[in-house]
Design brief:
By secondary structure, the protein is an alpha+beta fold. The protein contains two helices and four strands, in the order E-H-E-E-H-E. The chain has helices spanning 22-32, 63-69, and strands at residues 10-17, 36-45, 48-56, 73-78. Strands 2-3-1-4 form a four-stranded antiparallel β-sheet, covered by helices on one side. The two termini are 17 Å apart.
């Protein structure tokens, strides 16, 4: 997957179980934190998916913990 150069305040790398609705839950959570999505790249293979999301906003405190708490999350990094 080629996400390209980061073009925002932060990049979120989210490895998750590939199940219906996971991207909706991820994006809804970002909206709760008033994050604006600058770009998003998604790839899936079998039972796993990987989303790279570039976001802009303020108030990242607690975001990674909330992302980790999603049932579908395998691993997440906020860069």
């Amino acid at each position: 997957m080629a996400a390209g150069p980061k073009n925002s305040d932060a990049r979120i790398a989210h490895l998750h179980r590939n199940v219906p609705g996971v991207m909706g839950r991820l994006n809804s959570l970002l909206a709760e934190f008033n994050m604006n999505i600058a770009s998003q790249t998604l790839a899936t293979k079998g039972h796993q998916g990987y989303a790279i999301t570039d976001v802009s906003g303020v108030g990242y405190e607690g975001l990674q913990a909330r992302l980790e708490a999603l049932d579908e999350t395998i691993e997440v990094r906020v860069i």
